[in-house]
Design brief:
465 residues; alpha/beta; five-stranded parallel beta sheet; binds pyridoxal-5'-phosphate
Length: 465
């Protein structure tokens, strides 16, 4: 399988080249040239199979040129062996007659990013075993990506890792989960800016041809295709458990960079019939407004109680735009150029209608999020973290407007990661898992840097020597 850029001006690449490239040279994102489609019988056959088996069936067609079957099975095995309940790593909890929560926080850093990041680290290791090359891993994080990446990458020999987070804008738990990982090849950068500044910094590094070539620069953000792919697995696994492919299961996804939501779309492209996809946002509701109007208009990022979604530029939405506009790289490139220049772009009514066939979108304010944490706790006994609560609030709105059938809301983080907000909403302390308690007591190491490309570039250039 080959991969093409959403902006059409970068070379088509193989899977391993895409993993190392991260972002395409033309600023676009890589997507498969076409999607492997599984028949209804093939989906049916996967029902009731172990997670590792479903993961193998879904990921194999995308990377079989890079890894033989035995190697891929071994990588999947190792990626998920460190999860807290290895035989049930994505528990489904019923919270209403047709309402379910899919818990995706049973990995080492208690957020859903572990599910993809652990696999990505296995992929890096597998590829480095095949080819000698420098590897400089960079990532921007609004909180959870960074810790998941650092945990996953701390064992990779020969890699240099740089993770940027917005200084003072991540929760204390999130910060400590990053800054307590201390190793010579790992550097935490606290950037004096927002998450979007961090992400822009990473994107600009990729435009730097020296960094790309001589450092072996790659990204662990969901701009990297290998971050999206492992996420396709849990949509399929959960949908099959709840009656797919016969029954159409819907999903609600607390959304920031749209990576998780795009993985759901990939499951559909692979032939799995699903119901509705509900995009849930916090007060940074650029996507809700977009689905109403067809105009993507960025405003300043505002800090919220669900910080992992404090984003105005949803990078992965570019992949969706490409798919929904007949894979026209020209249209996407014009839209992205306009967005960069003016902070705005729009889609035509046909594209908007096509998007609305897949998606509903709702947002929740901080007050509504806190209310939802309390409502869920009182009505169902389920304790949500604020991101999960944003999703549950969206489900509620969706049901009120007539949404029917089985709905799965993704729980993307453990409530203890955001204990202050959760305790504020329920008035009760959150039980902290043992693993996290130890992290909270460990010493920290971090480099605070100015929001200036030259400063960040020089820091990375000097440290990676
Ligand atoms: C990363 C994250 C999100 C946003 O996911 P995207 O794939 O960026 O849309 C939502 N909730 C939590 C808890 C996260 O860590």
């Amino acid at each position: 399988m080959r991969y093409v850029s959403t902006r059409g001006l970068a070379p088509t690449l193989s899977f391993s080249e895409v993993v190392f490239a991260g972002l395409a040279e033309d600023g676009g994102l890589y997507v498969p040239e076409d999607y492997p489609v599984m028949s209804l019988q093939e989906w049916h056959r996967l029902r009731g199979k172990p997670y590792a088996e479903v993961a193998f069936a879904i990921m194999r067609p995308f990377m079989h040129q890079a890894f033989d079957d035995a190697t891929l099975r071994g990588m999947i095995e190792r990626a998920y062996s460190g999860f807290s309940q290895p035989d049930n790593i994505t528990p489904l909890i019923q919270v209403g007659p047709e309402d379910w929560i899919l818990e995706l926080f049973h990995g080492p850093t208690l957020a859903f990013k572990d599910y993809a990041m652990q696999m990505l680290a296995q992929i890096f290791e597998g590829l480095l075993a095949q080819q000698h090359r420098p590897l400089t891993i960079v990532g921007a994080t609004s909180g959870d990506t960074g810790s998941a990446a650092l945990h996953a990458c701390r064992e990779i020999q020969g890699a240099q890792v740089f993770i940027l987070h917005p200084h003072g804008r991540v929760s204390e738990v999130q910060r400590k989960q990053m800054t307590t990982i201390i190793a010579p090849h790992i550097r935490n950068i606290a950037l004096q800016g927002t998450f979007d500044d961090c992400q822009a910094m990473v994107k600009q590094l990729f435009q730097d041809s020296e960094a790309r070539k001589n450092w072996g620069l790659t990204a662990v953000n969901s701009i990297n295709w290998a971050r999206i792919l492992p996420q396709v697995v849990y949509y399929a696994y959960a949908a099959l458990a709840l009656g797919a492919p016969e029954r159409k299961v819907s999903f609600t996804v607390p959304t920031g960079n749209f990576g998780n939501m795009f993985a759901c779309f990939v499951a559909q492209k692979m032939g799995l019939p699903l119901g509705r996809c509900v995009v849930a946002s916090n007060r940074n509701n650029i996507l809700t407004r977009f689905f109403q109007t067809g105009v993507m208009h960025a405003r300043a990022v505002e800090a919220s109680v669900s910080p992992s979604m404090d984003i105005q530029v949803s990078s992965n939405f570019e992949r969706m735009l490409f798919e929904i506009q007949s894979r026209s790289a020209t249209i996407v490139k014009n839209q992205m150029d306009s967005f960069k220049k003016t902070g705005e772009f729009s889609v035509d009514s046909g594209a908007l209608a096509a998007l609305r066939e897949h998606y509903d979108a709702f947002d929740a304010t901080d007050a509504q999020t806190a209310d939802m944490i309390l409502i869920m706790e009182q009505k169902t006994g389920y304790l949500c973290d604020p991101h999960t609560a944003v999703g549950c609030a969206a489900v509620r709105r969706w049901r009120k407007l007539g949404g029917a059938g089985v709905m799965v809301a993704l729980a993307c983080a453990h409530p203890s990661k955001f204990d202050a907000v959760v305790q504020g909403a329920t008035g009760k302390p959150v039980v902290v898992p043992e693993r996290l308690k130890q992290t909270l007591l460990a010493p920290e190491k971090v480099n605070v840097l100015a929001n200036d490309f030259g400063v960040v570039r020089d820091f990375i250039a000097a440290s990676r020597r």
